[in-house]
Write a structure and sequence with these properties.
It contains eight helices and five strands. The protein has helices spanning about 15-25, 30-40, 45-65, 85-95, 105-110, 115-120, 130-145, 160-170; strands at about 1-5, 25-30, 70-75, 95-100, 150. Helix 1 (about 15-25) packs across helix 8, helix 2 (about 30-40) packs across helix 3 (about 45-65) and helix 5 (about 105-110) packs across helix 7 (about 130-145).
Length: about 180
């Protein structure tokens, strides 16, 4: 069994994922970071040089390989749900948790994160707020359909988010 965290950029997948993995005594994997490490280049550069289609194929292959393992918390890229095969792989390999945040919170988190430019290339070429509104509007139904349950991360402490996920997924945190 694995836990897959899905959701739009800056909803807390990596931050929550690391804390959740520690609590469960599981390993943590971030698909975007794994793709960047394996390819030796940033996501932004990969997309710029080879395009989104190439990146999405790398994402699909990475997810497929990860799903063969067990007891992992996997923070996925925001667009992983765009390929139905990815959704199928995640559902067969574990529980899919949607992390949500308001558009305002997402924008604030993106602006505050130094890694945004390197790891979050523009999806539409629009300004930040317009892009969030446009892309999140398109993806939200896909996120909801792909997930087993959703957790709102707005103004919530990481530990409280982890508690809710552990409880709703029917898991037990490691003692100590």
């Amino acid at each position: 069994m694995n836990l897959f965290l899905i959701g739009y950029r800056c909803t807390g997948k990596t931050t929550v994922g690391k804390a959740l993995a520690r609590r469960l005594g599981w390993s943590f994997v971030d698909t975007d970071r794994m793709i960047a490490a394996t390819s030796g280049t940033s996501i932004a550069r990969m997309v710029d040089e080879k395009g989104w289609t190439y990146f999405r194929e790398q994402e699909r292959q990475t997810l497929k390989a990860l799903s063969a393992d067990d007891r992992q918390v996997v923070a996925t890229g925001g667009g992983i749900i765009l390929d139905k095969r990815n959704v199928s792989v995640m559902r067969k390999s574990g529980t899919v948790v949607l992390l949500t945040a308001s558009r305002k919170t997402i924008a604030a988190r993106m602006l505050a994160d130094d890694a945004t430019e390197e790891s979050r290339p523009s999806l539409t070429g629009q300004g930040l707020v317009r892009e969030i509104m446009s892309v999140l509007g398109e993806r939200l139904p896909l996120y909801e359909k792909a997930s087993d349950f959703a957790i709102d991360t707005n103004r919530k402490k990481i530990e409280a988010i982890c508690d809710r996920i552990i409880e709703q997924a029917g898991l037990k945190a490691e003692a100590g």
